[in-house]
């Protein structure tokens, strides 16, 4: 059992620097010994921040393989652009380094299989940093499902409902990869924030699996309208965006459940992940943070208004043990505390030399939805089979 973890951070844009400053530097059992980014100013700034925090100045490089070759590095945190996540994770496993990979979507099924094959060849764990699996509501619902409160699960839904028009429009100035994604692709490009918690609730890869999907996309009008009114960049204002404003994906599972994912990032709206779980005995709905439990809420309608109970009233009874402990210790920064929990889970696995709670099979299955949705959309919403990346191991897995 290691007492501390020495890491390299690969990718130091907005997310990488945010995690470094808000989470990683505040973890007493984690030492950053290397930083890597293609841009010199980013890696130098990261090294400065680490040194100013009272730590030894890390090695700073533009070549991530230099980080992977360092004997002093136990694990790497990958916060690069979406298109490089899987490739760097594979190289990390090949070099014997635990890999923590930020979220995104895959570009092909082949790269998902290569990810799985790299793990099965090396047995070095790789964890997708899906922080939403550690949200308080998501974990409370998971706990209630395991306790039988929801009865038999039938349907779940979620979405990435996030107005990103400003970020996309300023992609060139901020050296952010999302702009090119929206210009050239049309898919469910960011599926794991909603899918991760649903997959845990539905036992995906652990007694259940996703079988097939259908994806459809609306037209792309939101960015053009935004740029016409907001941007002085005439070149970008005349750019044709491929990414539809609303992408809807419906997935069927082996046990018969369905789930719906929605991408909604280029129209005006408030932020929501829309996490909803439906069972034969209960309903949870994130958007009004409500629970409806059969037998407790017997008046289904009162003057056409459904009777609900606020989810906060069930905290004492159903808060997940992870959050019960977290509240006693003190909730930290980072997306309402989720970031700290997902990194703690990863670093605890590195220290103990054990498997990560979100494993490489989860990562491949969840990220594959982007590539598969792209195929389905291109074929006018035709059904597409979802591969079994566990090669049958899901049947007996717990």
Automatic annotation (TrEMBL):
The keyword Hydrolase applies. Its cofactor is NAD(+). SUPFAM superfamilies: NAD(P)-binding Rossmann-fold domains. GO terms for molecular function: hydrolase activity, acting on glycosyl bonds; nucleotide binding. The keyword Ion transport does not apply. Residues 5-127 form the Gfo/Idh/MocA-like oxidoreductase N-terminal domain. Keywords: Glycosidase, Hydrolase, NAD. Pfam families: GFO_IDH_MocA, Glyco_hydro_109_C. Residues 139-305 form the Glycosyl hydrolase 109 C-terminal domain. Gene3D superfamilies: Dihydrodipicolinate Reductase, domain 2 (3.30.360.10), NAD(P)-binding Rossmann-like Domain (3.40.50.720). Belongs to the Gfo/Idh/MocA family. Glycosyl hydrolase 109 subfamily. PANTHER family: BCDNA.GH03377 (PTHR43818), GLYCOSYL HYDROLASE FAMILY 109 PROTEIN (PTHR43818:SF1). This is Gfo/Idh/MocA family oxidoreductase.
